[in-house]
Amino acid sequence: MTPDDMFKIANGIALAGWLALLASPFASVWSERIAAAIIPLLLSVAYTGLVLAFWSGAQGGFDSLANVELLFQTREVVLAGWLHYLAFDLFVGAWEVRTARREGISFLLVLPCLLLTFLFGPVGFLLFNALRLVRRLSPSSVPA
Amino acid sequence: MNTLSMPMRRPLALPQSVMRSFQAEPRFAGMALLLLLAMVPTLFAMLVDPRLFNGINVWDKPLKFELALAVYLATLAWFSVYLPRNLIESNRYRLYSWVVVTAIALEIVWVSGSAANGAASHFNVEGIMGAIYALMGVLAVTLTSASLVQGVVFWRDSKSGLNPQVRLSLALGLVLTFVLTIIVAGYMSSSQGHWVGGNNSDVESFPLTGWARDGGDLRVAHFFATHALHFIPLVGLVASRTLKPAGAAASVWGASLAYCAFVGFAFVQALSGRPFAAF
Description:
The complex is a heterodimer of chains A (144) and B (279).
Chain A: H1 3-22, H2 28-54, H3 65-71, H4 75-103, H5 107-137
Chain B: H1 14-24, H2 26-48, E1 52-53, E2 56-57, H3 60-80, H4 85-88, H5 91-116, H6 127-156, H7 164-189, E3 195-196, E4 216-217, H8 219-226, H9 228-242, H10 245-271
Antiparallel strand pairs in B: 1-2, 3-4
């Protein structure tokens, strides 16, 4: 299997995880299992395998931006980096859904956060936490 | 965090007002706070982005919109404390206030998205941006209508516990914000741009507001039109504490008329291509 094939498959799997999050108001238990455990773990297995197989052969390292760039000249390492994004962004998305449910935040408000987390991870994480801060300041919100 | 046991009649003490604003209008107050928080990453973008638009940093405008709309919403949330409970807690008002908050969110997404792409947001009539600009006009009227709605409610709410002259000033200030803004901003948005004459650049403009110094700038009248909801209630508050009721009411009406004349002056001044002030 080429890195390009693996890339396509991983994207499809991650997308399934995001769809599961969208379905969380109807199936919260399975949505949580899929998006917070099964899919991130699956992607982590692939990541670990890629790092074991290709890390030693790649040039570069974590110590400078130039070295990180060098690291990403190995296609399999770029793929591993991408899987890292997919797994952790989805995990954060699942955390947002879970936290919102616990704190009584409407799913409608979580939707824009999920969209941003899916596209630009930290932006969605930031928006979700800004929403939580706003709600905590609001005396009319009583967390369940 | 739940300080529901606060005394009921202690208006205008700021921290308590903030808490009560959140209680009365959690959507407006919450969105105001979100906009202030959004200024932090916007400022960071400004620091790292060297691109210019009309001679100034592309992020200058989103930053100003975030601040301006936060002030607008915070003011409306604060005024909501004095609106009738049965109205503000009704489902239709809640729905309306969600519509207003959504319009503001979309407005910010549009202004920031345009900045990110280095494109004009307002006065952009080309292609898809032109269609979006027209839609944004609808959203801008929607968000401004919140002041009209509150103004009319204050005007009608004769059972309100508010001082009558303060209530009059709130009603007039809010309604004038809507009427004057719609006239000035409506005219401005159908023009080619907000500059009249001058070199059409934001360089060497007024600090903070960015008004042109070398020609007319319709943004001056827009600014004062929209701030009627601050100025006139301030007059009402001061007059109600220093004058007898009749004198206070006359002051509020007089101040409203004078304010309209002042906005009209700023509007005509810009239309004739003269800067707001020479300094």
